[in-house]
Design brief:
By secondary structure, the chain is mainly beta. 13% of the residues lie in helices and 48% in strands.
């Protein structure tokens, strides 16, 4: 009987050791968030996917009003079409964000060419991130 109890205990401990804390829920946003507020809690991830005229040299530039509330972890661009023989067209730029602490932060994005300093962007959007405990 002691052998079964010890075996059961070892099995339970190994199962508990293999469990991982729940991963944060990742929200997926798109351009429809413009002008709105996105609410989240601390230490959550979210992505923003935007079409970009990548073949014309455009990319989404961003500014974050309070980087203590939300930060950008990375960006990635990929062709929108799976047809590799297609020239030109749109790409999708994905921006990966993480909330850090309670508060509000305004994120502004502009689609522009980085070398064109005095030319208006071809597109822009702004949204607010509200973070609570």
């Amino acid at each position: 009987m002691k052998g079964y109890s010890l075996l059961t205990l070892i099995l339970l401990l190994s199962l508990v050791g293999c469990s991982q804390p729940p991963s944060s829920i990742e929200s997926k946003l798109d351009s429809s968030i413009s002008g709105k507020t996105f609410s989240s809690s601390v230490n959550q991830k979210f992505t923003l996917q935007l079409d970009v005229h990548f073949d014309g040299g455009y990319q989404w530039a961003y500014s974050i009003s309070d980087t203590n509330v939300v930060r950008i972890d990375s960006t990635r661009s990929a062709p929108k079409s799976r047809d590799r023989n297609l020239l030109g067209g749109l790409a999708v730029q994905t921006l990966f964000f993480r909330t850090l602490q309670p508060g509000q932060s305004v994120i502004t994005l502009t689609e522009r060419r980085s070398w064109e300093k005095n030319i208006a962007p071809i597109d822009s959007l702004t949204f607010t991130v509200a973070v609570t405990h």
